[in-house]
Write a structure and sequence with these properties.
- With about 190 residues, the chain is an all-alpha fold.
- The protein has 9 helices and no strands.
- The protein has one domain.
C-alpha cells in the first residue's frame, strides 16, 4: 500500500478505502473547509432560522460519507460531488421530518406556538425541488447529476465535466436543459398546489 503525499486528497481517499489507519484523520482537515463551503451554499437556500447550522450539516453528511463499504470515491472532485449530494439528502430528510411533525406525526399533543414548528415555504420548496430532481433523474440521470454538481456542489462547468467524464459543452447543454425542465416542473407543482 502506497503512502499518499501530505495534502493529496485523492491519495488519502484511496488509502482510507483500503483501510489504512489514520487516513481519515489526515483527510478531514484537508476537506473540512470545502465541506463547510458546500454546506453554507446549501443553507443559503434555506429559511434564515433553519435549525441546522453549517457545522451540523457537515457532521451529518460526513457520517454518511465515511461509510466506506457503500461509496467508492474516484478522486477529490468525486468526493465533493458526493458530499453535495449527501448534504441535499440530509436537508430533504430534515424538511420531510419537520413536515411530518408539523402534521402531527406521533407526537403527544400539547399547546404550542405555531411559529415554532412552521416549516416555512423554503422547506416545502426544498421538498418540491427534491421531488422534481428525482423525476429528472428517472428520465435523464446525468442532467440530474449536473444540477447536483453545479447548484449544490458549486462546481464549475469544467469541474463538473471532469467528474462526469464528458465535455464542457455537454455540461452546458445539460445544465440549460435541467434548469428549464426544473423550472417548468416546479411551476407546474406550484400551480397544482
Amino acid at each position: 500500500m502506497t503512502i499518499p503525499a501530505a495534502g493529496d486528497v485523492t491519495g488519502l481517499l484511496r488509502a482510507w478505502r483500503e483501510g489504512r489507519a489514520g487516513a481519515l484523520d489526515e483527510l478531514m482537515p484537508l476537506v473540512y473547509a470545502q465541506l463547510r463551503q458546500i454546506a453554507r451554499r446549501h443553507l443559503r437556500h434555506e429559511r434564515p432560522d433553519h435549525s441546522l447550522q453549517a457545522t451540523a450539516l457537515v457532521n451529518e453528511a460526513f457520517l454518511r460519507l465515511v461509510d466506506v463499504n457503500r461509496i467508492d470515491y474516484h478522486d477529490r472532485m468525486h468526493f465533493f460531488a458526493m458530499a453535495a449530494r449527501v448534504m441535499r439528502r440530509v436537508l430533504v430528510d430534515w424538511a420531510r421530518a419537520r413536515r411530518y411533525l408539523k402534521r402531527g406525526g406521533s407526537a403527544i399533543r400539547v399547546t404550542l406556538d405555531e411559529g415554532l414548528v412552521a416549516i416555512g415555504d423554503r422547506g416545502r420548496d426544498l421538498i418540491a425541488l427534491d421531488d422534481a430532481l428525482e423525476a429528472l433523474e428517472r428520465i435523464a440521470e446525468r442532467k440530474c447529476r449536473v444540477v447536483e454538481l453545479r447548484y449544490f456542489g458549486g462546481l464549475t462547468v469544467e469541474e463538473s465535466a471532469a467528474v462526469l467524464s464528458v465535455s464542457s459543452d455537454t455540461i452546458t447543454r445539460d445544465w440549460n436543459f435541467a434548469r428549464t425542465w426544473l423550472k417548468r416542473e416546479l411551476t407546474r407543482g406550484a400551480t397544482a398546489s
